[in-house]
Specification:
The protein is α/β, with parallel strands linked by helices. Helix 5 links the parallel strand 3 and strand 4. Helix 3 packs parallel to helix 4. The radius of gyration is 21 Å and the shape is elongated.
Length: 253
Amino acid sequence: MLRVINVQRAGADHKPRFCETATAQAILGTLAYCQEHGEMGLIVGEPGIGKTTAAEHFVEADSYLRWYAKVMPASQSVQGFLRRLVDTLGGIAERHVGTLDCYDIVLEEVSRRRGASLLVIDEAHLLDAAAVEQVRALYDELQFGVVFIGHRELAFRWQHKPGNKRNAWAQLTSRIGPWLDLTEVLPEDVDAICESRGVTGRRERTLLAKHAKGPGGLRTVVKVINVAATIAGGDQIEMAHIEQALAIRGQRG
């Protein structure tokens, strides 16, 4: 019989520390390069591979010169995204302020920062074409680091298609330097997360690595370990804890 566990939400003080996996190192390196050299970059990969976690960690280390803006359906248009950028940069945009005014505020906020800066745009696959072009215009005017992060469909959308008379994204893609395509969760990524969370058994790691290849990737691994750790109650996380955590989450071992 499955024993029901009362799994409580961890507070901010219990947030697991950032784990620098091999994939995270590649992401951090790309972000650092783009910031230092004022380059435009692209990072794409499957959901749950660690893109957002690494980007947020990088930005948190220097929130004055690094900014993280996550695109939502409500902010995918030019005006919606510029308003989000104004908020991200700490500016103020009144409700009646128009698109051009928002653009000017963003220009002013970025220009007044001293030192190499970086804008990370997460969930960039949601951006309208016009909003993407607005980011390109912003990059051309300020020549600062900009990195788009999104699903792999973003790279496919921007690539030149053979037979096309005109590559609609040529003005954008010709500006992109580093182009990081993360195709899958690496086994060493799973091992690194297991090591950081005290999962030492090979059988346990093998099971978690199996689930890392499914929907959710590393995100699934982290969530399963979180539940397993609660079940273990401070003891060593073992196979029984992980199997019960999978069952609680409706997953088969």
